[in-house]
From TrEMBL:
<keyword id="KW-1015">Disulfide bond</keyword>
<comment type="similarity">
    <text>Belongs to the cutinase family.</text>
</comment>
<feature type="disulfide bond">
    <location>
        <begin position="37"/>
        <end position="114"/>
    </location>
</feature>
<feature type="signal peptide">
    <location>
        <begin position="1"/>
        <end position="17"/>
    </location>
</feature>
<dbReference type="GO" id="GO:0016052">
    <property type="term" value="P:carbohydrate catabolic process"/>
</dbReference>
<keyword id="KW-0378">Hydrolase</keyword>
<keyword id="KW-0719">Serine esterase</keyword>
<dbReference type="GO" id="GO:0050525">
    <property type="term" value="F:cutinase activity"/>
</dbReference>
<keyword id="KW-0843">Virulence</keyword>
<protein>
    <recommendedName>
        <fullName>cutinase</fullName>
        <ecNumber>3.1.1.74</ecNumber>
    </recommendedName>
</protein>
<dbReference type="InterPro" id="IPR000675">
    <property type="entry name" value="Cutinase/axe"/>
</dbReference>
<feature type="active site">
    <location>
        <position position="180"/>
    </location>
</feature>
<feature type="active site" description="Nucleophile">
    <location>
        <position position="125"/>
    </location>
</feature>
<feature type="active site" description="Proton donor/acceptor">
    <location>
        <position position="193"/>
    </location>
</feature>
<dbReference type="InterPro" id="IPR011150">
    <property type="entry name" value="Cutinase_monf"/>
</dbReference>
<dbReference type="Pfam" id="PF01083">
    <property type="entry name" value="Cutinase"/>
</dbReference>
<dbReference type="InterPro" id="IPR043579">
    <property type="entry name" value="CUTINASE_2"/>
</dbReference>
Length: 211
């Protein structure tokens, strides 16, 4: 991924600057960690420096939209507890390997604890990279339990050829706004990279179609 000192500074200044709408879910959600199994488990990895464990946008909006379609009692929303640090963007693969392994372990735990559940995974920006790096290392059996993977503002879209390696493209949706340069293999942050909440319903509709 190409980057410069100016790009780093711009990334740092903009990740928390956009006006973001937080809906009912809030920026932290632990319904899988703290609750019983539900028919659907939705993991979301937030973007760099976002608050909580799902961030302000588009995680809460995505979870709310999926719950609206499948029933709130049927969907366990769960954030991914990784650092989401600025430095993580510059690691090989766009996210720290240790945190990708931890996310993969979280998905494995869901598949073991709730063998009948369908699992959805999602991520925004660096969180999208984390989805790539975690899902690609899952076993074939666990991948079969992942019904859909959706990414927003995906920093690894170009690098991975518009797909998540070793994962079914029919179960993958990569959402990038026109003009979002991170989807083109750089860390150049433009206004197009901020506020993906209007596209959360698109991601939710895809997940619901795979339910």
């Amino acid at each position: 991924m190409k980057f410069s000192a100016a790009a780093v500074a711009l990334l740092a200044s903009t990740v928390a600057a956009a006006p973001l709408e937080v809906r009912a879910t809030g920026t932290t959600i632990n319904e899988f960690d703290n609750g019983a199994c539900r028919p659907y488990i939705l993991f979301h990895a937030r973007g760099t420096s976002q608050a909580g464990n799902v961030g302000q946008d588009p995680g809460p909006q995505l979870i709310d939209a999926v719950k609206a379609s499948l029933g709130a009692a049927n969907v366990a929303g769960q954030g991914v507890p990784y650092s989401a640090s600025l430095a993580g963007n510059f690691q090989t693969g766009g996210a720290p390997a240790s945190e990708a392994r931890a996310f993969a372990a979280q998905i494995n735990a869901a598949a073991t604890k709730c063998p009948n559940a369908k699992i959805f995974v999602a991520g925004y920006s660096q969180g999208a990279a984390l989805v790539h790096r975690a899902v690609e290392q899952l076993s074939t059996a666990v991948k079969a339990k992942v019904a859909a993977a959706v990414t927003f503002g995906d920093t690894q879209k170009k690098q991975d050829g518009g797909r998540i390696p070793n994962f079914d493209t029919a179960k993958t949706l990569i959402i990038c706004r026109t003009g979002d340069k991170v989807c083109e293999g750089t860390l150049t942050i433009t206004s197009a990279h901020q506020d993906y909440s209007p596209l959360a319903p698109q991601g939710a509709a895809f997940m619901v179609s795979k339910a």
